[in-house]
């Protein structure tokens, strides 16, 4: 899984499985998977030595041939010129517009602002909206707390695959249609 997907799945208040989105609870082990890892043999991609998957991580850390194998892969991937890589804005973590505390996901920012800044009447720019293609990074909400409650109680990408080139109203319509189908 990529880091943004893991961050979304492992939110502190309600962590979910990255595959089935089922709730994660402390102490539940996937015993069948653990057994499979203990009993499945494979070969090291560097030296070719056969071992159980459960031993692969410690072997890979000490196998010089495996380290070379990984470095060759890194070199192959990084040979492309950097100008071909598109610069995507961060739409996963946001700073608080009141106190500049950083790295909140959307839900975390809403909770933080409700808890610590509910009485602050300053007009601020919504960092979530500002990160979107349709967002205006200079627009200051007259009532930011109400804006958060109305627009950001949930994340669109929880309900639809986000197309950030789509219009916000179209995305909201998709969310509403899906919610009706899921009843």
Automatic annotation (TrEMBL):
Signal sequence annotation: none
Protein keywords: Ligase, Transferase, Ubl conjugation pathway
Pfam families: zf-Di19, zf_C2HC_14
Coiled-coil segments on the chain, per record: none
Reactions accelerated catalytically: S-ubiquitinyl-[E2 ubiquitin-conjugating enzyme]-L-cysteine + [acceptor protein]-L-lysine = [E2 ubiquitin-conjugating enzyme]-L-cysteine + N(6)-ubiquitinyl-[acceptor protein]-L-lysine
EC number: 2.3.2.27
Annotated pathway: Protein modification; protein ubiquitination
Primary enzyme class: transferase
One of the protein's GO biological processes: protein polyubiquitination
Domain C2HC RNF-type: 44-63
GO molecular function per UniProt: ligase activity; ubiquitin protein ligase activity
Designated name of the protein: RING-type E3 ubiquitin transferase
The gene coding this protein: Rnf114
């Amino acid at each position: 899984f990529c880091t943004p997907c893991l961050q979304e799945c492992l939110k502190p208040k309600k962590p979910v499985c990255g595959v089935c989105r089922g709730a994660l609870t402390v102490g539940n082990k996937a015993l069948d998977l653990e057994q499979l890892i203990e009993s499945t043999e494979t070969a090291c991609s560097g030296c070719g030595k056969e071992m159980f998957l459960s031993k692969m991580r410690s072997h890979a850390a000490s196998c010089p041939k495996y380290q070379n194998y990984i470095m060759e892969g890194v070199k192959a991937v990084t040979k492309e010129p950097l100008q071909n890589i598109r610069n995507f804005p961060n739409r996963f973590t946001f700073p608080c517009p009141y106190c500049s505390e950083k790295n909140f996901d959307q839900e975390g920012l809403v909770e933080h602002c409700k808890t610590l800044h509910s009485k602050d009447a300053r007009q601020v720019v919504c960092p979530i909206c500002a990160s979107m293609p349709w967002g205006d990074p200079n627009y200051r909400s007259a009532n930011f707390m109400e804006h958060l409650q109305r627009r950001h109680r949930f994340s669109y990408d929880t309900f639809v695959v986000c197309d950030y080139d789509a219009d916000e109203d179209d995305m909201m319509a998709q969310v509403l249609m899906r919610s009706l189908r899921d009843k």
